[in-house]
Amino acid sequence: MDTDTAVTSLAALAQPHRLAVFRRLVELGPEGALAGELAEHLAIPANTLSFHLKSLQQAGLIVPEPRGRTIRYRADFAAMRGLVGFLTDNRCGGDASLCAPADTPAQASGCC
Known about the structure:
Blueprint: H1 3-13, H2 16-28, E1 33-34, H3 35-42, H4 46-58, E2 62-67, E3 70-75, H5 77-88, H6 105-108
Antiparallel strand pairs: 1-3, 2-3
Helix pairs in contact: 2-4, 3-4
């Protein structure tokens, strides 16, 4: 992933409703959800949700699947992995073991 794509993805997620929608779609896995189901679960008005879904779609974080008069939305897990990879690339100076969870409080102060 390049910097411009990462910035676009992070900007899309930097809003509480969009972050909630994306997290819900990640939680639901490959099945995803219809817009109405998301609106009901997250208590977001349909027109507001539509705006947020469009932003997430333009950022490449979700994939719409039209089904007749409805659209099922799914998280794009490859895009999510790409963003996480971009954010964690070269963590702890390239020594990922320094960023591993600490077993003891003394180890927790080691790095990152």
